[in-house]
Amino acid sequence: MSACGRGARLAFADSVIGTVRAVVLAALLLAFALFVANAGAAAVPAEQAGDAIGFWTAARMRQAQPLEVRRQGRAQIAMRGPAGLPSLGPRILPPSLPSGEASASSKFETVADPTTVQSRVNGAIFIETPFGLGRCSGTAVNSPNFSVVFTAGHCVNTGGSFGRWLSFRWVFVPGYRYGQRPFGVFPAKWIDTTRQWRKTGSENFDVGAAVVTRNGRGELLGKAVGGDGIAWGLKTRQVFDVHGYPVEEPFDGETQQLCSQTPFLGHDTLSFLSPGPLNLAVDCDVTGGASGGGWTIRDGVLNSVTNYGYGDDPNTDFGAYFGDEVAKLFHRAASIK
């Protein structure tokens, strides 16, 4: 072979090697980008958010099953407050619209009209997951972008270092009732959880949030229904109104339910085994589907969300304490444009 031929072949080989290196580098950069994206909040593509409104028919909403965390056995409750208040608390942000009075009850009672000023901020969440059609409960929260929904962490991410985002066709339907969507459907464009939920999967940090797009009428969530206030770093001894859309018997997920003026009972003893502030227990007969439903104090200030219950103790509901991690989650969500 001539020197010219050998040179051409070497040049061609160098070109191929360079191309392969470029492809490998691009693949590595893509993998790193995906890792970084998974390490933080999840953005939902705009076309997917738009598709979600049409996807969720009344029939599909009825088919959706609870994304539930239910422990075996019976709860053991202990009394002891968190070891010190969070560094960012206490702080109370008021609701954007006032809430009304509630009569004392530890039983879930049907909200006769979920479109009232007090009730319309609560809604059902629907998600298409790898396991089928899923659902949770959530609450619209007052924020500068008028677009924040709070729920349980496991309603947006399965939790822990290998957790999966549950962002596909994620929508919030405030005031939902029997398939009716009186204020429209609000698809998520961004979802996140407390960083400790994503890192450890500890139920002490099982809190999530979404930033939603406008509904089909072009309205922002906060403009359409208002939003509850939010508080963190408070004392645990509060009296809560517990909201949600339970699906499992004796409920059917089609109506909003309320346990009103139910006081703090203590902490799940298993909560002491995990890092973070101890969780909260109240007397409320929740069932699957109520996960993520808001616990409000002081006429419409969100201060916890439903996380889980026990199979042998259906009358006790457990929720996360709102501390440092929740404060940071709220600020991240409120800053999304």
Q: Could you give a quick summary of the protein structure above?
A:
The chain has helices spanning 3-39, 46-55, 58-63, 195-200, 221-225, 324-334; strands at residues 42-43, 65-66, 70-71, 77-78, 91-93, 109-110, 122-129, 132-141, 148-151, 171-174, 186-193, 208-212, 229-232, 239-244, 257-268, 280-283, 294-297, 301-310, 313-319. It is of the alpha+beta class. The strands form two sheets. A six-stranded antiparallel beta barrel has the order 7-8-9-12-11-10.
Strand content: 25-35%
| Helix content, binned percent | 10-25%
Can you count the helices?
6
From the N-terminal CA to the C-terminal CA, the straight-line distance is 65 Å
Structural class: alpha+beta
CATH class of the largest domain: Mainly Beta
Major sheet characteristics: 6 strands, antiparallel, barrel
> What is the count of β-strands?
19
Q: Going across the major beta sheet, what is the strand order?
A: 7-8-9-12-11-10
State the CATH superfamily name of the largest domain: Trypsin-like serine proteases
According to CATH, what is the topology of the largest domain?
Thrombin, subunit H
State the low-pLDDT regions, or none: 1-17, 19-38, 81-89, 97-104
Provide mean pLDDT, rounded: 83
Description:
The chain is an alpha+beta fold. The chain folds into two domains: 1-39; 42-334, Thrombin, subunit H (Beta Barrel). The protein is built from six helices and 19 strands. The strands form two sheets. It has a six-stranded antiparallel beta barrel. A hairpin with a 3-residue loop joins strand 17 (294-297) and strand 18 (301-310). Mean pLDDT is 83; it is low at 1-17, 19-38, 81-89 and 97-104.
